[in-house]
Amino acid sequence: xxxxGRLTSDVTDMSAIFDIAPGAPLPNxxxxxxxxxxxxIAVVRQHPTQKVRRLDVARWGxxxxxAKDIKIGFTTFNARSEGLEERxxxxxxxxxxxxxxxxxxxxxxxxxxxxxxxxYAVALKDGGMMTLAGLWEIWRSPAGENVRSxxxxxxxxxPLLAPLHERMPVILPxxxxxxxxxxxxxxxxxxxxxxxxxxxxxxxxxxxxxxxGSVRNNDPSLIEPASALL
Length: 230
Known about the structure:
Layout: E1 5-7, H1 11-17, E2 32-35, E3 40-46, E4 53-60, E5 78-80, H2 91-96, E6 98-103, E7 105-111, E8 117-124, E9 130-140, E10 146-156, E11 167-169, H3 174-181, H4 188-193, E12 203-207
Parallel strand pairs: 4-10, 5-10
Antiparallel strand pairs: 1-2, 1-7, 3-4, 3-6, 6-9, 7-8, 8-12, 9-10, 10-11
């Protein structure tokens, strides 16, 4: 699963990395060391009418267009890669509204006992930005507000992360971006083939302080190795 993340990169840098259309407005996103579902995340998507890449903001937790209540987003912040084309909450977005979700890293917890868990920070070994496979949707609230939301696609964990959790977010290499965004033709089978565990040897993880368990804590020290904080 992926239920807590980190995004501290500047939007200008993200615009360059993802080749965002020149002149496109950029979102106002503050650095966040402890991103949680229902908060704003960045999404790279193909604009539905202009057919160019846009960097936008979305609420983390996908709200299907047919949903009657925004609260569904509390349970749809992740989407299992298996069955994406069948599950009602995600099948339309999988077909036509796929996106990339930039993260600088995420957190996962290792179960130590019935009530004890140890948090870990996870990042790419080279320190680069993670590009997660996502889906986005537009929901119109009863008050007439259009809410853009998104979910992170997950797959079985690689050997590095398996001791912490059985699932991990799908991390897409640059070579897969255009296909996932729909800029290049691909059928459902080709898209599903992209949703594989990222190579363990290209990732790193380390234990961090339990302060990360509360979203009220949001500062650079959250990613410091736990031993360095003693």
